[in-house]
Amino acid sequence: MDFIDLAAQQARIRDKIEENIRAVLDHGQYIMGPEVGRLEKRLGEYVGVKHAISCSSGTDALLMALMAFDVRPGDVIFTTPFTFIATAEVISLLGATPVFVDVDPKTFNLDPDRLEVAIRALKARDSSSYPLPITHTPSPVTPRGIIAVDLFGQPADYDKINDIAKRYGLFVLEDAAQSFGAEYNTKKACSLSEITCTSFFPAKPLGCYGDGGMCFTNDDRLADAMRSVRVHGKGSDKYDNVRIGMNGRLDTLQAAVLLAKFEIFPEEIELRQQVANRYTRLLSKSTSLVLPYIPKRSKSAWAQYTVLSESEHHRNEIMAKLKNSGIPSAVYYPKPLHLQSAFKGLGYKQGDFPISEECSRRIFSLPMHPYLAQEEQEKISRIIVPQIT
Length: 389
Ligand SMILES: *Cc1c(COP(=O)(O)O)cnc(C)c1O
What we know:
Blueprint: H1 6-27, H2 34-47, E1 51-55, H3 58-68, E2 75-79, H4 86-93, E3 97-100, H5 112-124, E4 142-149, H6 158-168, E5 171-175, E6 183-184, E7 187-188, E8 195-199, E9 213-217, H7 220-230, H8 252-262, H9 265-283, E10 298-299, E11 305-308, H10 312-324, H11 354-362, E12 363-366, H12 374-384
Parallel strand pairs: 2-3, 2-4, 4-5, 5-8
Antiparallel strand pairs: 1-9, 6-7, 6-10, 8-9, 11-12
Helix pairs in contact: 1-8, 2-8, 3-4, 3-7, 5-6, 9-12
Pyridoxal-5'-phosphate binds near residues 86, 87 and 149.
């Protein structure tokens, strides 16, 4: 059994993928070919945002967004420690400082109440009211923005987060790497903040056959800045450089693959929902697992089906049993970012973000993809909950 079965999807649309790749080989425009613009138009319409700017990965999408916001050393960006490293890595890469805020224990997303406490603590430079990082800049740090993450496919609480951001004059960046296709109050993920970023890494809900990503915004000025950053800070052309940028383009071949995959994507989101519903029905017989909590306002893209066990020991026991039956499972994430060596310089310590730490000990994810069969799910569930017959 596969954790994510990309072969089943490919078998369905192999002809279309080959046809699209062949078209690129025929026209030969490997960089910024017509497929790139076509994909941007299609995905921009799908999420309901004016500008869609494709790029080389989800990480580069976040980097381009922060560069468009002109994030620099001395700036502070609030974000969650319970995410993939890329979310906070890009903050440090620009010389700015990530300030971590613990997550909501039910959704695993940035907790808006704690966010406000952290913003106030930072402004007052009072680390007794919330854990703050050590900063090495001589001048006062400037709170600039928030990166909220839609973990496992479920959007963060943007009504509250955007409202807090407005009151404190901060920008909001939605890290929608895991939530393309999700919804929040009937709006699509990737439309929920000033700039939003997604990833087309093969294992994400919409994945290509390599690396890829996209930024979305309704703001003309930010869109121009991201298009400039994407090609070495170009001005009127690539040899007129008006800012420091990067090489952040999406390959035409990856756009061609994505165009083929996007044709069945809305249907796949429905299939993911059915698979998730089946898991929840089967596993509801368990008295020891906490199943995913999705508030009524949201629809998850189900990048992962993730549950909480009773303890680290309990989790390891279940994962070992699954493994013995040839069933893969995974832990996202075994170590919260504030405890990663890479962020040692921030001076955070064990106990600073107890909910993230507790989740990292108890959480695990089950095989999840649109083509997971009912029998497979029944087999998985019987191993986890032997009472199921
Ligand atoms: C995957 C992921 C990224 C990075 O995307 P890449 O395309 O792998 O660079 C960023 N943030 C989150 C939350 C992710 O899951």
